[in-house]
Amino acid sequence: MLRLKRGLNDMRHYVRMYVPQDPPTPAVPSNPAENRVHNSMLEELRMSLGDKFPAVVRLYLSDTRNQLHIIERILLAQHDVSRIVLAAHSIRASSAHMGDARMVDAANALEVAAQDMGKGAAHQELLFLLGQIKSIFDETVKSLEVHGKAP
């Protein structure tokens, strides 16, 4: 949870520095028990970004899909795994900003496993972790769509 709060604080700082402040949009009520992402953090982000929130969500979804595709291509071609570390780190950081703790944990596990691959971690382990991240990301997308947070 601390990583998620730190990520949100980083995002708030970015918003204050680079995004013109508009009046906040009203929060959309939802049932947090059904939400994949940490609802209160996502609502804070919505309030901070105002009408720019949908663009940030689109960017998160697009970038995460691209990073997952990069990781998959590297794993299938068995290229240098240092790029996997960078892609997993990017997914972890952006997921923290969106308040998705499960994506943060899964991306962190992939990042650590990729770093350890040179120390004997199995290629199959990376493929398994990638599958987990893709499954969690699919749940995140569905949750954002169901709760009206995805553009």
Description:
Helix 1 runs parallel beside helix 2 and helix 3 (53-77) runs antiparallel to helix 6. The chain starts with a helix and ends in a 5-residue tail after the last helix. It is built from 6 helices and no strands. The longest helix is centred in the middle third of the chain and has 25 residues, at 53-77. It has helices at 2-18, 39-49, 53-77, 82-98, 101-116, 123-146. Mean pLDDT is 75; it is low at 18-35.
Compile the SSE list and pairings.
Layout (H helix, E strand, L loop, with lengths): L1 H17 L20 H11 L3 H25 L4 H17 L2 H16 L6 H24 L5
Helix pairs in contact: 1-2, 1-4, 3-4, 3-6, 4-5, 5-6
Characteristics:
151 residues; mainly alpha; elongated
Query: Main sheet, how many strands, which sense, barrel?
Result: none
Distance between the termini: 26 Å
Total E-strand runs: 0
State the order of secondary-structure elements, H for helix, E for strand. Answer: HHHHHH
Structural shape: elongated
Percent range of helical residues: over 70%
- How much beta, percentage-wise? under 5%
Low-confidence stretches: 18-35
Treating each run of at least 4 consecutive H or I residues as one helix, how many helices? 6
Structural class: mainly alpha
Q: Radius of gyration from the CA trace?
A: 16 Å
The chain-level mean pLDDT equals 75
